[in-house]
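Please fill in the sequence for the structure shown.

STRUCTURE ENCODING:
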């Protein structure tokens, strides 16, 4: 039984897109790439991923078209929806280990982290990640917050003797096409000065990223815990390119 890769999209500022990125990655790798995926929702106290799963399940009881699509998807793949483990940050690794002790195993474990890096439980769990990807936008407040988070991880967590972090990368999210490209290039120079690397893939600002299923109708959905992102909506989203880059780094 090989060890899984522990991966987190993490930052301390809301609105950067870490939960959406976690869900999209989990659904794409599980339903499309057929990898064994576990999502650990330790974004206490809101538990955003678990809340989305509950909402998806509730809509299957209301929207017959959506329920049929989900049933056909799961039957064709012969799988249940990927598991979501809900816990406090300080309990996360213990609960994952307990699943392994029971014989469960995964290719990748995705953590949706609480943003309060000053919490000892959060800091300890962050230190046990293999890879951390920090979403950042051109918004000044988000940018400064994400940069401060990355520097704190670099200076106070990466240096711990029992830290497992192999790589940490900044990730441009919600890139506005109206912004000049050199704006992002200039910010990346700042990251480089802080010894922080940035992923090549930049995710554009698209409403489709938050497009969920409705209570009626059969519109295509992008963010869902029971289905993969719709193929048509994937085009031009930058997300397949991002996953290819991430998988290359993680070597999955």
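FILLED IN BY: designer on duty
SEQUENCE:
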């Amino acid at each position: 039984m090989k060890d899984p890769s522990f991966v987190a999209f993490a930052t301390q500022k809301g609105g950067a897109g870490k939960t959406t990125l976690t869900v999209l990655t989990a659904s794409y790798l599980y339903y499309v790439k057929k990898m064994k995926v576990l999502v650990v929702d330790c974004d206490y106290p809101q538990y955003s991923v678990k809340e989305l799963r509950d909402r998806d399940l509730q809509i299957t009881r209301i929207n017959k078209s959506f329920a049929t699509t989900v049933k056909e998807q799961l039957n064709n793949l012969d799988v249940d929806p990927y598991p979501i483990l809900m816990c406090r940050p300080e309990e996360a690794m213990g609960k994952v280990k307990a699943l392994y002790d029971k014989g469960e195993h995964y290719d990748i474990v995705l953590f949706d982290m609480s943003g309060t890096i000053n919490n000892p439980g959060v800091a300890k769990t962050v230190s046990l990640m293999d890879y951390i990807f920090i979403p950042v936008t051109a918004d000044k407040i988000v940018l400064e917050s994400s940069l401060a988070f990355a520097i704190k991880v670099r200076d106070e967590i990466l240096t711990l003797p029992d830290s497992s972090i192999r790589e940490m990368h900044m990730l441009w999210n919600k890139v506005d096409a109206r912004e000049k490209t050199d704006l992002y290039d200039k910010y990346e120079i700042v990251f480089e000065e802080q010894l922080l690397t940035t992923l090549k893939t930049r995710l554009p600002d698209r409403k489709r990223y938050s497009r969920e299923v409705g209570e009626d109708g059969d519109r295509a959905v992008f963010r869902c815990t029971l289905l993969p992102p719709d193929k048509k909506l994937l085009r031009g989203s930058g997300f397949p390119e991002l996953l290819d880059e991430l998988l290359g780094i993680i070597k999955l």
